[in-house]
Amino acid sequence: MRKVTDYKAPIPKLEKGIAINHGDKNKVLYTIFPHYDPELGYTSSSRIVIGRAINDEEMVPNENYKKYFPELWKSISNEDVPPLTKRIGLHALMEGACRKNNLIDILQKVFGISKACSILDFAMYSVGYHTNAAMNYSQAMREHSLFSSQLHDDSYYSNLFTHEMPERMINLFRIKWVQECVRQGITEAYLAIDGSNDDCESKGIELAEKGAAKSHTNSDIIGFMYAVHPQTGKVVTFDTYRGGLVDSKAILKIITFLKENGVSVKGVIIDRGFCDGNCLSFLRSKQIPYVLMMKGNTAGHNYMLAMHGDELRWNSDCWIPDTLVFATSEVNRLFDRSSLSAHLHLYYDFKNGDERCEALLNKISKLIKKIENATEEPSVPKELKEIITVIPNENGSFGYKIQNSSFQSKLNSKGYFTIAASENISSKAVLEMYRSRDAAETEYMFIKTQLGYDTVRVQSESCMRSRFLVGTVAAIVREEVENACKELNLKTNTMIHEMRQLSAASYNTKTYTVVHTEKGDVKDLMSKIGIQASDLDNIAISETQRLSGEIPVLRKKKPGPKKGSHRQKYDESGKPVKVKPGPKPGSHHKVKYNKDGSIRKKPGPKPGSHHKQKSDDSSGS
After folding, report:
1. Are 568 and 576 in contact (CB under 8 A)?
2. What CA–CA distance (Å, rounded) separates 178 from 94?
3. Per residue in 48-87, pLDDT tens?
């Protein structure tokens, strides 16, 4: 196989950009795209060697010749050179979802164009790669088209999140986003609210406190809470709070914020994590209606199961039309040591019950096989200890004994669940309300796990708040993709991966071009989100302009606050108040007094006194 340097190639004929350095072994130099030099503060050009000139017409090429002039290389070698590519699918996905929610405009108004682009890039990284680790950002996004004018590294984002996104701006974003939700028609609704806490490994965060850690460790934790519109799955707002603050007070804080910004909260739909007497008593004292999924070990659920379980199973009088569920309800106490009561709705879902019974039987069968083949006494899972007991035999083998009463009780309990409602609502309406949390649960799962929020490793409170804001932007985009995929009966993660593969190619290193070979599912998703083929072309054109220097890269600003910014005042909307130069109106007319109370006078004659004419008497004397 011939080497590249075995060929003779024509010197590219360009109006500018090609030069022969006769003083340095006839090197042929090619001027590539301009790049930003942070030391100089402006865009400069770079040259690379593409070979050595034989004469004014021919040259011996090298690998750079193949890369930057693939068509000329093919004419002499009949070898196709893979084009340079730039992935544009995630950019298009972000642009379409943000366009539907006016997100780009909101971010630019709050943070400015440059910071808004950086936030969008990091949110795109979170959506595409299910992580929020800044250290991997530049490597993952190197091949992607970006909103920013250049690819940033983790140190840039560390500075952005810590110093460039103050709490005032984050609160302003929260206000403007709620206003956008109101514009989209979310003005009055039951909200699905969920909260959690993360271990905090940093010592400089005031919100980190001891509390009921989800990790069951003695770690300091911070709390966070999201409110989601259950019918659409849209994140309406978010908040972070002290790890020791109880969830009910955090709910009140979110509801108050929403009411102040135009969203009337009719009530909250909450899961088992809020099934606590103190929490529910607090909600009742504040007259906040709730719909709550009860835990399986509470007195309220056990009472309903014992009193109505048998009569509910396959009872046609209790069937809820258009479902596979049977239901009954009554008012009763929720907990053993509390007088708090509510409307308890007991449901029997036979399909869910059969699936859970099958899962239980499979677990017991696997445990029995493990016991029969064991050489050492096997451990029994906690959930099966009431059902099966391991018995050692004299020959060193092991047997087992099944507690039939406990086994039967477990089987009979499968398929039942209880939902508590503070108001008198029908069992069908309560079930529909709680099932509307499905979209919200998807968002919570995405926020808690795929964005990497199991442990907070940031070193400042401001950085932590900024991370959650970026996570919210990513969740909003993800929700749009999730809803579109659900309508098209497509898998969300699969389609995000497919969108990641869309790319623009550069065949001559000067222009990126999109060859439209999108799959049918990708076209359907793009259409649903509002992305057109021309949007992909525009992204490719923008990328070409960025690399050619037509879109300038912003100069780096000097560190520290702007001159006089520590005295800057802001109005209620967060905009700086403009002050006219000079003294305040009327300030120079203020009367000044001496220590003894007399009016302070300036030294010298009174203004204009030396212009007064002398009287005749004074002149005659």
Report:
1. yes
2. 20
3. 888 999 988 899 998 888 877 877 888 888 887 666 788 9
